[in-house]
Amino acid sequence: MFKDTEKFQIIFEKAGDGILAADIKTKRFIFANPKICEITGYSENELLKMGVEDIHPKKDLPYILEQFQKQIEGTVVIIKNIPVLKKDRAISYCDISAWPAKVGNQKLLFGFFRDITARKQIEESLKNAKIAARNVLEDLQFEKEALANANAKDEALLQSIGEGVVAIDKDGKIILMNHMAEQILSLNAEKMIGKSLYEAWKMLDEKGNPVPESMRPVIAALRGKTTTTTTTTTNTGPSYFYVRKNGTVFPVSITVTPVIVNNKIIGAIDIFHDITKEKEAEKLKTDFLSLASHQLRTPLSGTKWLIETMRREILGTLNKKQKEYIDQIYQLNERMIHLVFEMLSILRLEGGIESVKKETVLIPILCKDILISMTAAAKSMGIVLYSNLKNHKDFAIRTDQEILKNILECFVSNAINYSRDRQKVILGAEEQSDAVVFFVKDSGIGIPEKEQKKIFERFYRASNAKDLKPTGSGLGLNIAKMLAGKIGAEISFESEENKGSTFYLRVPKRSNKE
Ligand code: ADP
């Protein structure tokens, strides 16, 4: 049997809890076991020179001393989560159970320290994990809501969009139809879902013939991966019509886009709107144009005739100043005539009034005519005109002579305007197997590279052209391009600033405009 002191000694030394005994009065330590040394980092000797106040952070002392008092009185046995200040100034947390006891004459308080730092850390990490999990959940919830919102927004957008939207699957069956599509076509979306688009409503071409299923833009999109757009105006492409359920017909502008996922076409979207109003406005514009073209031309030609009469001094001699003024009025009037001519050409082309002829055009004769008509303008600028066509008498193409001439005149007039004194301008043509390529080459100011892609825009003039000739309109090439479109031809050019430009017109021998 162990003696009591031996028993006490073993418990004291092997205990899993730290044990400290403090004098109740002085609060100095009397005993310390190995475990408390491990918890605090102090040796036994060090601890025996210390007291309660030395092993806790200062800020926590009032509470700890209060609890110490209660433990002495026996009203509280265990105090939890007490910070213990270690020798290395780090903090361990302990639950401390304590009992007062009398050893000899000394009244002691025995404290049993259970180190809960590790537990606390686990609790802390658990808490953090909980917070993290909650955050993830919240994020998920947020994403879910955002997705729902986005879906709702898409849905609202789709439904409120001012155009008819119909989506079809890869077999041409309707899978979605928005309100506007229902309204425009007088159809009920619910009843249309699952039906073939071809059966849902008919489409007519310009002549009123039904467009066969294989030619419907939406079917073409399913096959071809390309976006098809039919235009809103008559001049730039064929017009199409949709037929409502009640049989009424309206002109329509359609954009069809295939839906491609992983490089496979999984369906197509047909976006369309009724262009009845645009067509009406177009007709009004056309009516106005034919009226305006007569009304504007007449007074301008009248003025031209009057000025010329005065210029030729038929009504009497003019003094130097009068001559100068009359010349200026003449130039201004010429500019106005040219401008009105160009504007009317554009409007006429847009209005689709211009009809296209098919006639045999003898190219050498055409080029000669053009050079003759431009000689005066070239001479006044000191420019020399050439042609490379002298020996090709039978060189011909079937197209619209007037349109061809207008385009080439525009090229030659630009070449003259943007060349300098004594430079050459060459007009020529070359035969290729499927086309004739006309060209106009100058060695003039050229077009700055940065501005090249804009020169076909209406009213656009390159900076160097504006400096050299402030009075141009920036309409010539725009008209030329539209005219080229009418005869199925293409315009291209090469140009280098300060070196010169060559403009090409490629007229196919067999045009798909036939
Ligand atoms: P405009 O000659 O009345 O300005 P155009 O539409 O005929 O209008 O030409 C547009 C612009 O293209 C010109 O302002 C000029 O900057 C450029 N351009 C056209 N032809 C030539 C050319 N042969 N040399 C240099 N610049 C040219």
Structural write-up:
There is one protein chain. The protein is α+β, with helices and mostly antiparallel strands and 514 residues long. 43% of the residues lie in helices and 25% in strands. The strands form 4 sheets. Strands 6, 7, 8, 9, 10, 11 and 12 form a 7-stranded antiparallel β-sheet that branches. A hairpin with a 5-residue loop joins β3 and β4. α11 (320-351) packs parallel to α15. Residues 232-236 have low confidence and may be disordered. The structure holds adenosine-5'-diphosphate. Adenosine-5'-diphosphate is lined by residues 410, 414-415, 417-418, 442, 444-447, 455, 461-462, 465, 472-478, 501. Adenosine-5'-diphosphate (ADP) binds at residues 410, 414-415, 417-418, 442, 444-447, 455, 461-462, 465, 472-478, 501.
How would the blueprint of this fold be written?
Blueprint: H1 4-14, E1 18-23, E2 29-32, H2 34-40, H3 44-48, H4 61-73, E3 78-85, E4 91-103, E5 106-115, H5 117-160, E6 164-169, E7 174-177, H6 179-185, H7 189-192, H8 197-200, E8 203-204, H9 217-224, E9 228-229, E10 240-243, E11 249-261, E12 264-274, H10 276-311, H11 320-351, E13 359-362, H12 363-380, E14 384-387, E15 396-399, H13 401-417, E16 424-431, E17 435-442, H14 463-468, H15 476-486, E18 490-496, E19 500-508
Parallel strand pairs: 14-16
Antiparallel strand pairs: 1-2, 1-5, 3-4, 4-5, 6-7, 6-12, 8-10, 9-11, 10-11, 11-12, 13-15, 16-17, 17-19, 18-19
Helix pairs in contact: 10-11, 11-15, 12-13, 13-15
The structure holds adenosine-5'-diphosphate (ADP).
